[in-house]
Design a protein that fits this description.
single chain; alpha+beta
Length: about 375
């Protein structure tokens, strides 16, 4: 492989301007003015390289008029000259080795530059892809928002010939214990109310009660001073289901007056049925709880009216004979009556179980 001298990186600015390295600043300006007028594009319209030549002269003049950059250029030129002298003194074998080494260095630099350009292009592509993905995501989110708004408008827009019902005005569902109250009292204070039928008879003034579904439990009261000892008093707890919600509401509304007489009355479910709150918001209950009044008249309320008034007085419990026991079931009872009786017995068993569990929880 023939040897070749080391390549010069760029054309010498001194050679472009036609001056020596010892030229002064004035000589540099004069040389630039003279040569730039010769190669100016306006005077050489037929030369396609005129603009490139003019730019090269301008760059060379600017570099040489900068003292610090000219100092670095002079040092570089001296190193190149010394390198050429050393290369000329080498024998052919060594010249070949130096040439091959410089070629490999040039190839390595080109490969590194190509790799750097590839990496830069790849990063630019990744940035472009991310930006495109972000725009697509924002566009998709806007489309989904518009679709959701359209769906909401479609739901709110009434259809022709269709009455729109507001879910907020719908009454809450009825519960199993909406018409059932819990009564608790000391048996010694009300000895006449020792049976479920006697209790139902006294509470019937508020409304109709099915005696067969009244659940009563009696439990000996434990002494507070010595745990586990019985002082002889019996506590009666009963669940009384009314046939109508208004009757149960009337009893609970009289809870304060009944408490003064030694009887605690509350809702069997532990809280007021939701349907009463719905009725109260509609103004069907007449505001707050009714005041104490005379027992209700036998005259039925007109249709469409709900609970116009509720009795708040409670009958006296003294010297009231217990009601007669229920008549025995006839032998010829039909299938419907038998099924209803079994359903009442099952409900009674469930209520008794709830009372026992509640008493066990209170005794802990």
């Amino acid at each position: 492989m023939p040897s070749k001298a080391p390549e010069e990186p760029e054309e010498n600015p001194y050679d472009l301007l036609g001056i020596s390295q010892e030229a002064t600043e004035a000589e540099i300006r004069t040389a630039y003015r003279t040569r730039s007028l010769k190669v100016h594009p306006d005077r050489n319209r037929n030369d396609p390289n005129a603009a490139q030549k003019f730019h090269a002269l301008t760059t060379a003049s600017t570099l040489l008029l900068d003292p610090l950059r000219r100092l670095a250029l002079d040092a570089q030129l001296r190193l190149q000259a010394a390198k050429k002298q050393r290369f000329a003194a080498y024998d052919n074998k060594r010249k070949v080795m130096v040439s091959e080494l410089e070629e490999r260095e040039q190839e390595f630099k080109k490969a590194r530059m190509a790799k750097e350009q590839e990496r830069t292009a790849r990063e630019s592509e990744n940035v472009r892809i991310r930006e495109d993905g972000r725009r697509l995501r924002e566009q998709r989110e806007k489309e989904l928002e518009v679709q959701e708004l359209e769906r909401q408008r479609a739901r709110l827009k009434p259809e022709p010939n269709v009455i729109v019902e507001d879910d907020a005005l719908a009454p809450p569902p009825s519960g199993d214990l909406d018409t059932t109250i819990r009564v608790k009292y000391v048996l010694s204070s009300h000895p006449a109310l020792s049976t479920a039928f006697a209790l139902a008879a006294h509470l019937r003034r508020y409304g109709d009660i099915d005696e067969g579904t009244v659940v009563m439990s009696q439990k000996a009261k434990k002494s507070k001073k010595s745990k586990g000892l019985v002082d002889g008093e019996m506590i009666v707890t009963a669940l009384v289901p009314f046939n109508q919600l208004g009757a149960a509401f009337a009893v609970v509304s009289s809870a304060e007056s009944l408490k003064d007489r030694g009887m605690d009355v509350a809702w069997a479910g532990g809280s007021e049925p939701p349907i009463l709150g719905w009725l109260r918001e509609r103004g069907e209950l007449g505001g707050s709880a009714p005041k104490r009044a005379e027992p209700p008249q036998t005259k039925a309320a007109p249709e469409g009216k709900t609970f116009s008034s509720f009795p708040s007085s409670f009958p006296a419990f003294d010297n009231v004979p217990p009601p007669p026991p229920p008549a025995a079931v006839k032998a010829g009872m039909d299938y419907e009556s038998l099924t209803l009786l079994r359903m009442r017995e099952a409900e009674r068993a469930r209520l008794e179980k709830e009372i026992l569990e509640a008493e066990a929880a209170e005794g802990r």
